């Protein structure tokens, strides 16, 4: 009898443990689904009803999370708990920030409420009074026109408010268009009465948004400089908040010091390679010679394929990781459009590698700069970054292991994991002697210097210390960028829709993975293959949480980021 009771009790404990293990991933997936369906329903995120509803959603899930017995969770479950709690905190912070800035800028869109009423009426297919609707749209039109005149005659506006307002107005405009199209041509009276008022309203709103963009002025007394790039420096307080979210326990000044230390190493190695090429100490001349190795138009795909084959062969020979045959089979190439090359002058990757190379629409100078900046030796450092074992393999594995942590669910993605992992492979392959000669070394060092420079120029810009033009000049003078490519890089960083810490994440995330590799592989606790496979199977998260899983160190419930992965004298 006692044995039966004991077995039943143990079975109960096993069942409870299984339920807990299932509940956290399920809860995370459900939250992601709930957030997305609410986003599709409340199509204008900045309205009061949308903001209130999202706050309620977050509050409900926080309560569910707090209801769990943290001490009884496994290591994996405790990491998921921390990751989910982190996401909920950040989602709430972002919603509060949105509400604050839109409340501050609501004088720029006094027509919002009436437009949103029409959007709301459409959700359930309310039959409109067509004549009255034409009057409502005409009244909205007049309000937009009045505000247009007021803004046109007024002073410049804080770029932070303009950015938030134009994003909000674009959401409002698209949702309003959807509501209009629901009735147009289906309701004869609506079509007859509303066609012209709607067309005039849409045109006026578009014109007003263009005016706002022309009126924006950078905050912190930074004016539009000769680069023409107008971003929004976020300031030290916001940088520190974002670093805390990313689990990076360093100040901006310390991160700049890390970049300077890494730069000094690059300088020493660059001089060694320069001497090998016969240029003495003039690394700029050596770099120029490497740039001149570019291939003729039409030949770049062949270069990418050759470099891919070489890197794959190298990884297999050194047993660095498991490469699924399907991942090898299904990667492919596309050509980057001329428009996108203005923002990203170098190729990008994932399942598809997007090749950046000149097109017929570019000027002679633009073509040469693009070709020089994408020469084979520069590309040797980045093909594996973009494909395997970088972004291509990350995406492949992320769709197959612990998928609730993946980018698709929008849960725990961070550039410090995404870009950091890809950058780590550049550093690892250098250490394992992948470059075949001084030209290869200079090509790989160029990119490492570039990542050091990204930390410095992006932080100094967001601290209000540098202008975009100073950032461009720094990339040209300190790294050796072609000027057009430097302009594209800075434009991408500050007005390309990237998170302000995105450019920092490459080198810093790479250093995190490198520190973890030293802790586990260099000490003989894991092989390269075991280490790399394990990281990819855990999917996306801050690297400190990857470390918690790999070294089997459960985070406390009141976790504060503390992993100092890089020594600063």
Structural class: mainly alpha
Q: How much helix is in the residues?
A: 55-70%
Largest sheet: 2 strands, parallel
Strands side by side in the biggest sheet: 1-2
pLDDT averaged residue by residue: 91
Query: Roughly how many Å apart are the termini?
Result: 66 Å
Strand content: under 5%
Tally of helical runs: 24
Shape: globular
**What would you report as the Rg, rounded to the nearest angstrom?**
27 Å
When the domains are counted, the total is 3
Order of helices and strands: HHHHHEHHEHHHHHEHEHHHHHHHHHHH
Overall strand count: 4
Stretches with pLDDT under 50, minimum 5 residues: 12-22
Overview of the molecule:
The structure is a single chain. It contains 24 helices and four strands. The strands form two sheets. It has a two-stranded parallel ribbon. A two-stranded parallel ribbon has the order 3-4. Helices cover 67% and strands 2% of the residues. The longest helix has 40 residues, at 2-41. Helix 9 runs antiparallel to helix 19. The chain is mainly alpha-helical and 569 residues long.
List keywords for this structure.
mainly alpha; two-stranded parallel sheet; two-stranded parallel ribbon; 24 helices; globular
Concise structural overview:
This protein is mainly alpha-helical.
Helix-strand layout with pairing:
Blueprint: H1 2-41, H2 48-66, H3 75-104, H4 112-123, H5 130-153, E1 157-158, H6 159-183, H7 188-215, E2 216-217, H8 235-245, H9 252-276, H10 283-291, H11 300-317, H12 325-330, E3 332-335, H13 338-343, E4 352-355, H14 364-373, H15 376-379, H16 383-386, H17 391-398, H18 415-431, H19 438-462, H20 468-479, H21 483-495, H22 502-520, H23 528-538, H24 543-550
Parallel strand pairs: 1-2, 3-4
Helix pairs in contact: 1-2, 1-3, 2-3, 3-6, 4-6, 5-7, 6-7, 9-10, 9-19, 18-22, 19-20, 19-22, 20-21, 22-24
């Amino acid at each position: 009898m006692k044995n039966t009771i004991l077995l039943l009790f143990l079975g109960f404990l096993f069942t409870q443990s299984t339920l807990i293990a299932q509940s956290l991933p399920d809860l995370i997936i459900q939250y992601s689904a709930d957030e997305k369906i609410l986003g599709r329903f409340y199509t204008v995120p900045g309205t009061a009803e949308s903001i209130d509803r999202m706050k309620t959603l977050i509050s409900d899930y926080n309560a569910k999370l707090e209801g769990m017995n943290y001490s009884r969770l496994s290591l994996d479950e405790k990491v998921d708990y921390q990751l989910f709690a982190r996401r909920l905190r950040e989602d709430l912070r972002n919603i509060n920030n949105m509400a604050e800035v839109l409340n501050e800028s609501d004088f720029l869109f006094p027509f919002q409420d009436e437009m949103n009423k029409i959007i709301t009426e459409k959700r359930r297919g309310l039959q409109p009074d067509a004549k009255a609707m034409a009057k409502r749209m005409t009244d909205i039109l007049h309000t937009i026109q009045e505000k247009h005149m007021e803004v046109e005659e007024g002073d410049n506006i804080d770029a932070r408010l303009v950015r938030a307002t134009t994003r909000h107005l674009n959401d409002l405009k698209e949702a309003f268009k959807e509501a209009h199209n629901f009735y147009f041509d289906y309701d004869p009276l609506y079509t007859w009465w509303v066609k012209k008022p709607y067309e005039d309203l849409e045109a006026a709103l578009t014109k007003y948004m263009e005016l706002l963009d022309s009126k924006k002025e950078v905050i912190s007394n930074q004016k539009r400089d000769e680069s023409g790039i107008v971003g929004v420096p976020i300031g030290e307080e916001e940088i520190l908040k974002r670093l805390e979210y990313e689990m990076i326990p360093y100040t901006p000044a310390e991160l700049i010091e890390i970049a300077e230390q890494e730069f000094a190493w690059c300088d020493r190695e660059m001089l060694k390679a320069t001497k090998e090429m016969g240029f003495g100490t003039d690394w700029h001349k050596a770099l120029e010679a490497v740039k001149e190795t570019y291939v003729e138009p039409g030949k770049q795909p062949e270069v990418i394929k050759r470099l891919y084959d070489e890197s794959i062969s190298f990884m297999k020979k050194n047993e660095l990781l498991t490469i699924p045959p399907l991942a090898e089979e299904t990667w492919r190439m596309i050509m980057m459009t001329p428009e996108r090359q203005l923002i990203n002058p170098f190729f990008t990757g994932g399942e598809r590698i997007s090749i950046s190379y000149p097109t017929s629409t570019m000027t002679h100078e633009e073509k040469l700069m693009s070709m020089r900046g994408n020469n084979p030796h520069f590309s040797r450092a980045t093909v594996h970054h973009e494909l395997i074992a970088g972004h291509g393999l990350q995406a492949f594995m992320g769709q197959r292991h612990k998928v609730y942590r993946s980018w698709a669910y929008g849960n725990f993605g961070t550039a410090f994991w995404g870009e950091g992992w890809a950058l780590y492979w550049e550093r690892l392959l250098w250490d394992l002697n992948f470059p075949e000669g001084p030209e290869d070394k200079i090509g790989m060092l160029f990119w490492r210097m570039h990542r050091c420079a990204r930390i410095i120029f992006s932080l100094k810009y967001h601290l209000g210390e540098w202008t975009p033009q100073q950032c461009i000049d720094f990339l040209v003078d300190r790294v050796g960028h072609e000027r057009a490519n430097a302009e594209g890089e800075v434009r991408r960083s500050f007005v390309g829709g990237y998170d302000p810490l995105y450019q920092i994440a490459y080198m810093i995330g790479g250093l995190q993975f490198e520190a973890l590799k030293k802790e586990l592989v260099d000490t003989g606790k894991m092989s390269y293959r075991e280490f790399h496979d394990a990281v990819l199977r855990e999917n996306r998260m801050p690297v400190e949480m990857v470390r918690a899983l790999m070294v089997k160190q459960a985070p406390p419930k009141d976790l504060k980021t503390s992993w100092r992965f890089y020594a600063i004298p």
